[in-house]
Amino acid sequence: MSAVMTIEELRAGLAWRKNLDKVFVVVGLLILMSCLGLLALLFLDLVRDGAARFGWDFLTQFPSRKAERAGILSAWVGTSMIMLVTALVALPIGVAAAIYLEEYAPKNWITGVIEINVTNLAGVPSIVYGLLALGLFVYQFGLGQSVLAAGLTLALLILPIIIVGTREALRAVPKAIREAAYGLGATRWEVTKDHVLPYSTGGILTGLILGLSRAIGETAPIITIGALSFIAFLPGSPVTGEFPFVNFEWLKSEFTAMPIQIFNWVSRPDQAFQQNAAAAAAILLGMTLAMNAVAIWIRYRFRKKINW
Amino acid sequence: MRRIGERLMSATTATRSTAMGKGAFSSRAYRKYRDRVVELVLLACALVAVFTTIAIVVILVVESSYFFEHVTIREFLTDTMWTPLFEDAHYGIMPLVSGTLTVTFVALLVAIPLGTIIAIYLSEFATHRVRETVKPVLELLGAVPTVVYGYFALLMVTPFLQQFMPNLPGFNMLSAGLVIGLMIVPYVASVSEDAMRAVPRYMREGSYAMGATRLQTALRVVVPGAFSGIAAAYILGISRAIGETMVVAIAAGMQPTLTFNPTEPAATITAYIVQVSLGDLPHDSIGYQSIFAAGLVLMLMTLVFNVIGFFLTRRFREAY
Lengths: 308, 320
Prior knowledge:
- The complex is a heterodimer.
- Chain A has helices at residues 7-50, 56-60, 73-104, 109-122, 126-140, 147-171, 175-183, 188-217, 220-224, 249-252, 258-266, 271-305.
- Chain A has two domains: 7-51; 56-305, Orthogonal Bundle (MetI-like fold).
- In chain A, helix 5 (126-140) crosses helix 6 and helix 8 (188-217) runs antiparallel to helix 12.
- Chain A is globular and about 85 Å long.
- Helix content of chain A is 74%, strand content 0%.
- By secondary structure, chain A is mostly helical.
- By secondary structure, chain B is an all-alpha fold.
- The radius of gyration of chain B is 27 Å and the shape is globular.
- In chain B, 48% of the residues are buried.
- The chains are: A mainly alpha, B mainly alpha.
């Protein structure tokens, strides 16, 4: 500043700059609120459009050529089965990988390569996982267009989410706990299994739920492996009345899933089907938001409860 | 601490029982051996990530090599029509690339300003309480299933835009891009906010001491200081928008057209893959193989952005 300012000019300038601050706060809040408002608007609109279709029948009927008789039975059963496979595959592998990277991994090039891969996989578009599954699971392994193939695909997709979540949880456990256990002669695995893991359950659970909430809405990869949208039967029940009480036929069954059903209905020009799409989308969105809410709540509870 | 107590107890009992011969604790050699096995199992699980990447590359390259036996790379890159499913087949990827880039551009026009303003607000202006409440809620925007966003784009945003633009077709890239932009706002905001918060406090305090207001400090000290991190947020946002599938498949129409006009319908690379997957082409037909070639292009595009983003985030972490 070349000219010497009087005190009045300085004050006026400062007042002006402070007003700009206030304007920015208002703008920031407005933008934030309108983003959240749009989310609320979307949900309310889905509920309003789909209102006519909600009811027991919608949940217990198969898809149909007639919009008013169509339901989402095969879709939600398919989705539940896929989520079961995804969780059973992704949780152990993801947690084990995170334990290795956080507790065991020496600083060498193999660890570096694994780290880069985890970061990179989190950014791979979901449809590329679909192409991978199509080439590998459906054709090379001969799994066909089955519940198992879909579950494995989504498990690979959410693996980075679970790994990152678990690593954060493990990192939050203080060093002192580990050192105390080592001091008493525990081996590394005993330290991890008996001391570090129990303290990180909350974080691991949060990661799993967030991963599943991502998987439940993924449409593109399971369209790519060839999910059908018109399925008027249910895969065999996983639990049977006769010995050995479990049945794995359902893994090989063809399937449909909630997002596939929504996609199919929304693509039809007929407005009655779009109502069905709205109702199913409201249910799917409600499930996703509920899972996220549970994850946030668990994270909050554990953060509050643990006092090192 | 309670667990450590338990271990201490069992350790003392163990010493007592080893004195008596065989104890509750297994032999040292066995425990060491078990540890070694566990470590190998854990390593194998960690390597799944590496194998996934290798498998993606191998599958895309091998499957699209069949495609490139029929179509020259030159034709693939220079032909201006993409009609693999027609009688008169053309295999030029450019119409799909133009659609992808147009949608991404529209999405960034929404996501970059909104995401940056939200990040500055949360990092520099909001109180701790507000930030802790708003962040998880904002992340819900990114958690909404993409097929639901597709419904939103086709049946709410397009009719809304048609009130102002009567000539807008029912399928268009504009509403798809706008909705994808909204979808990646939380992502851009959260990565940029992390970068801004990594700027050390003393830099802000130096600025305040010179008489700067919060906004001046934010724009002239914090944002330049966090530049590489914010750039990483934008670049990772680009990569998300490029890979987004369902919104464009539902709302942008599926005809590959070489155009950069967002008010027209067009197909993106991802939408084309969905379109072919929905049909019932035989596995060995060239139309079917073409989705792997398209997937390879998609993978390469996002890979470039992901790698740049990876190195930029690494830089801002090491800066201070």
